[in-house]
Amino acid sequence: MKTKQLKWGFFGLMLAMGTWAMTSCETGSTVSTAKLGKPSLQSFDFSQVNTPYGKLNIADLMLSKSFKAVTFNGGFGFPGGGTVDEDMKSAATAYSNAGAQLGRVLFYDKRMSLNNTVACGSCHHQELAFSDMASLSAGFGGRKTHRNSIAITNPVVFSNLFWDSRANSPMDLSLRPVFDHIEMGMESDEMLETKLAATDFYPALFQAAFGSTEVTRKKVSLAITQFLSSMITKNSRFDVAVARELTSRGMNNGGFNNFNTHFDFDIAAAQFSNFNALEQMGKDLFFSDRARCSRCHTGENLSAPEDPGSGYSGPTIAGTANIGLDRTYADNGKNNGKFRIPSLRNVEITGPYMHDGRFANLDQVIDHYNRGIQPHPHLDKNLMVTGGSAPVRLNLTQEEKDALVAFLRTLTDVSFITDKKFSDPFAN
């Protein structure tokens, strides 16, 4: 699919002169790529991640339903029947470290924006578990985005990405911000391809990833997809506790490694030896019918299942729910105030919270669910009293609220936010 075309006489002349400058229609400023520098690259293994269960091979992950291929090694499946577009038939489609490395560079390269000022990594910071501390992120030309930048959390196993679940895979997600007129402002496929092809280090990176120096939109998308897919966070204190519990029970932990939508044991009743008393209390509350947290934040990603079955009592639209933030919504999300139920992994460091970043900290989030839910015709039934006549009021004590926050902090994966292979190559 091609975006709108540009006349390239002037830009072609500039490229021929070995320069690239873009004048922002938003700011009137001119920025040269010469000031952006080159990436400093190390050789990384993007195919495996360390977990409390040992090495997890990305190729063994259960992919979201939008991927038709069984494993990465068999090639990526594309939305729409799992076929590869005609112009990609000659390109390498299998997962590779070279492809993920190229995707890493593209993810952090400000050349991906119209005026060389914004990269994907500008709104998704590794130290914040690839979220943004701003309520609404700053896009191209300094304009504010309409929603908070959602954290990147194991995207390869989800088929509902963005707050409104409009993307059904990392491939579908990969270039949407690049061509968004607020976020990064790129105006056409040709502009993107010509701009990258004129950058001295990209031909070698494309050659390594795809066997050809040719730069195409599809290859860019595929490389970013491979990098995003390698982002697996699964090494929190919670994961350590689960691994110990499975070992002590002599249970097969393969299901957990594959991100099944259920646990292999009654996690609510388990006593975790690496948790203190407050964290244990919070874990017990989280998985109880008293606090109701696990009714929506379920499975190993602590998020809504992508395809709820008939026996599931959670959100009626896959992965989204109305959680009573407002009586009247200026932003309806997926209709009637429904927004994606995000993963709670690394939630301690991904504030501010909700789609509009209205809550600055976890205490405010807990207080919302405790006593602040607003009535709404489409409020999720898990947040209503029996019979559906009014929002639930949990009446948690201060100690119980503190305990929930303490448990949520056990979901932080320090190794994920410090792993060099996910870091900014332009800053190293």
Q: What structural category do the secondary elements indicate?
A: mainly alpha
DSSP summary: helix tally: 14
The CATH architecture assignment of the largest domain turns out to be Orthogonal Bundle
Shape: globular
Give the rounded overall mean pLDDT.
82
When the domains are counted, the total is 2
Classify the beta-strand content into a percent band. under 5%
Helix content: 25-40%
The CATH class of the largest domain turns out to be Mainly Alpha
- With strands numbered from the N-terminus, the spatial order across the biggest sheet is 1-2
Total E-strand runs: 6
N→C terminal distance = 35 Å
Low-confidence stretches: 1-31, 66-93, 257-262, 308-316
Largest β sheet strand count, sense and barrel closure: 2 strands, antiparallel
Task: Report Rg.
Answer: 22 Å
N-to-C order of helices and strands: HEEEEHHHHHHHHHHEEHHH
CATH superfamily of the largest domain: Cytochrome c-like domain
Annotated CATH topology of the largest domain: Cytochrome Bc1 Complex, Chain D, domain 2
